[in-house]
Design goal:
Elements: H1 2-13, H2 16-26, H3 41-60, E1 76-79, E2 85-87, E3 93-97, H4 104-109, E4 116-117, E5 131-140, E6 146-151, E7 159-165, E8 171-177, E9 194-199, E10 204-212, E11 224-226, H5 228-263, H6 266-285, H7 288-292, H8 298-323, H9 326-329, H10 332-344, H11 357-384, H12 389-412, H13 420-423, H14 425-459, H15 464-492, H16 503-520, E12 524-531, H17 534-541, H18 543-560, E13 567-570, E14 575-580, H19 586-603, E15 617-624, H20 633-649, E16 655-660
Parallel strand pairs: 1-5, 15-16
Antiparallel strand pairs: 2-11, 3-4, 3-5, 5-10, 6-9, 6-11, 7-8, 7-10, 12-14, 12-15, 13-14
Helix pairs in contact: 3-11, 3-12, 5-6, 5-14, 6-8, 6-14, 8-10, 8-11, 10-11, 11-12, 12-14, 17-18, 18-19
Length: 661
């Protein structure tokens, strides 16, 4: 992380003139489409400025590589059989083709000094009408032909040409795609732009890509190389995750539509519209709508996204004004300001129908930023001056979304690693925001219902019995909710496969044990164990059998525990931890852990891939003496991990222990 930040700083320093020349052009698209945390005007303004700085940095310094990275020779990526997934971004180089006139041969023939090495997995060309060429060399070192899938990780890239070239410059494969062409032009039937590569044994090929935006608004790409099996698994997992996300939004949408139909409360209808816009935005932005709904209508796909973004802003403003009752709860000027900016969003999508795609989002950003400031001010007034519960719900919801957005832009700029979690932070944040706002609306309705019941109790003494029954029902529901929360809390700290505690609970308990040892000079013991030759077991017997082995080992270890304060944790794939609260000599602790080793051996699970013939474990045991020196949780864990490594190096199926003074 330190190297990345340092490299980013150097990139800024080396491109001040570039920043100055582009500032006026880029500032118009530097505003986010997400709402910052609504606690006060000052705090909101800081968050807005931070998001604008992050986006501005991404636009001015594309990917921290296309404009601000070091120059150098082409990097060769060695392909082996043990690379199911390989991010190509850090190994790629790019060059700008300002006029967009170069072909593949001319681009490849340009001097090495014209190419700049990328720094991050995600590549951002910023706001630019230029064509951008990227290249990377792949060498097949497997001894046989390999098949790979090149996935750009973007569904909205306007124009992209991919050339796979031999060392002599002749083309081996090629593809033209982008969301400005019908979906049938894509070589892979997936939501993102992807291409199947065939690389002969022992040969070296150069993957040359030309990316260009329709009118300057470039999309971020994350070039990744997959094996066909890994790509299929990636697509399936991604589809499942997005299915859960869209299903969650659809559930909230249908629930609020039902509430609106049954109660005729406008707030439910407007909130349903807001959630519906979020759902449609996700389907279009992630490429599913283009893939399944209108694959032959690329222009409509781009126009639909522009309309949905405008509708999203409008429904957001309308919902907050209705939910927070701004007509009566805040000064009239603030209410009018929010109403005008919300209505102005209805004009933002018009340039998209004139094929001015980027102009739509420039207007969205400008007017949306003004709208955000107004809504932020309203929520700040409600929270600080009036202590509004609805304002707190809205503030918490949009703070959650803002945090997710900030982390997402940090990933875009390379400060946070790109992975399945960080790639989908906007979806996670928006889902959390939708749920929190739904809770807020429900809470508001419950508050109104409670007030109505209270008035009825005062007016109608005869309904005392009914009121008592209602109170009992509320208490019963509260108890059920508490029980449900307790079950959810247990699920959050339990490993789903083995039933023992998970890594999150282990970190918490380990920190508590170390703190207790430091404060009261009490002894403690930590044992890490790892299943020997587990990968070989999975390869031979299959992953379901491997899962069953982990369950049996977890059960055997848990049955050996003698105290309520002793626990077994699953901290990794086949790695477990045992945290002991001891008051006995170290040799007795060692005997106890040896018994646990024997318990695993006693399972007698056949393992033809192990020299012992059965499934065994290696264990590293660290004991903290009662009067020992203060230790940190990291030190204790590292010591146990080192002993576990020694046990493996010494032949496995044994315990190596150490007592720390």
């Amino acid at each position: 992380m330190a190297e990345l930040v340092q490299g980013s700083t150097e990139g800024f320093a080396g491109n001040r003139s570039l920043i100055t020349s582009r500032l006026s052009r880029i500032w118009r698209v530097a505003c986010s489409t997400l709402v910052p945390m609504q606690l006060s005007m000052a705090l909101a303004a800081r968050l807005i400025r931070l998001m604008c700085m992050l986006m501005l940095a991404g636009a001015l310094l594309p990917g921290f590589g296309a404009e601000a990275a070091r120059r150098g020779q082409a990097i060769t990526v060695i392909l082996t059989d043990d690379q199911p997934e390989l991010q190509l971004g850090p190994s790629m180089q790019s060059r700008e083709d300002a006029g967009g006139r170069l072909d593949a041969t001319a681009a490849l023939a340009t001097p090495a000094a014209d190419w700049r090495a990328m720094r991050t997995a995600s590549i951002n060309f910023g706001f630019s009408t230029s064509a951008w060429w990227t290249r990377v060399t792949l060498r097949n070192a497997t001894g046989h032909d390999v098949e790979r899938i090149l996935d750009l990780g973007s569904s909205l890239l306007d124009h992209v040409d991919i050339h796979v070239l031999r060392p002599d410059g002749t083309q081996l494969q090629g593809m033209s795609g982008g969301d400005r062409l019908p979906f049938a032009h894509r070589s892979e039937n997936v939501r993102t732009i992807a291409m199947h590569l065939h690389i002969p044994a022992g040969q070296e090929v150069t993957v040359l890509m030309r990316c260009q935006s329709h009118d300057g608004l470039n999309e971020i790409i994350t070039p990744t190389l997959y094996t066909p099996q890994a790509f299929t698994a990636h697509v399936q997992l991604e589809t499942l995750a997005f299915g859960i996300y869209y299903g969650l939004l659809a559930t909230v949408l249908l629930y609020n539509l039902f509430l609106y139909a049954s109660t005729r409360q406008t707030v439910f209808g407007v909130y349903a519209a807001y959630v519906g816009c979020f759902l449609l935005w996700g389907l279009v932005f992630r490429g599913y709508a283009f893939q399944y709904w209108w694959p032959d209508s690329p222009n409509f796909n781009n126009q639909a996204l522009a309309v949905i973004v405008s509708a999203l802003y409008m429904s957001l403003g309308l919902f907050l004004m209705k939910y927070l009752d701004t007509a009566h709860s805040v000064p009239r000027a603030l209410h009018r300001f929010a109403a005008i900016t919300t209505a102005a969003q209805g004009l933002c999508f018009l340039p998209a129908f004139l094929n001015l795609y980027s102009a739509t989002f420039i207007l969205n950003s400008l007017i949306g930023s003004v709208e955000i400031i107004g809504l932020t001010t309203i929520i700040g007034v409600l929270v600080i001056q009036q202590k509004s519960k609805a304002g707190r719900y809205a503030g918490l919801a949009f703070a959650t979304l803002t945090i997710a957005a900030l982390l997402y832009y940090l990933r875009v700029l390379g400060f946070v690693p790109a992975n399945a979690l960080t790639d989908n932070l906007l979806q996670i944040g928006s889902a959390a925001e939708a749920l929190l706002l739904a809770f807020g609306v429900a809470d508001q309705m419950n508050t109104l219902k409670t007030a109505k019941l209270h008035a009825e109790r005062q007016a109608l003494a005869a309904q005392t019995a009914l009121n008592t029954q209602l109170e009992s029902l509320v208490s019963s529901r509260t108890a059920e909710l508490e029980m449900a929360n307790e079950r959810l809390a247990n699920l959050a700290i339990t490993d789903e496969l083995t039933g023992v505690y998970n890594r999150r609970q282990f970190n918490k308990d380990l920190a508590a044990a170390v703190a207790l040892h430091t404060r009261h000079q009490t002894p403690a013991a930590l044992c890490l164990l790892d299943v020997d030759h587990f990968k070989a077991y999975n390869d031979r017997y299959g992953h379901p059998a491997g899962d069953e082995v982990l369950r049996q080992i977890a059960t055997a270890l848990r049955q050996q525990l003698q105290r309520a304060s002793d626990h077994v944790y699953r901290v990794g794939g086949e790695e477990f931890a045992i945290l002991l609260d001891i008051n006995e000599p170290p040799d007795k602790v060692m005997r106890f852990i040896t018994q646990m080793l024997a318990a695993v051996q006693g399972l007698g699970i056949p393992h033809e891939g192990s020299p012992f013939g059965i499934v065994s474990v290696s264990m590293g045991l660290v004991i903290l003496k009662a009067q020992g020196a203060p230790r940190t949780a990291t030190e204790l864990y590292s010591a146990a991990d080192a002993l576990l490594y020694q046990a493996k190096q010494a032949g496995r199926n044994q315990v190596i222990s150490q007592t720390l003074d």
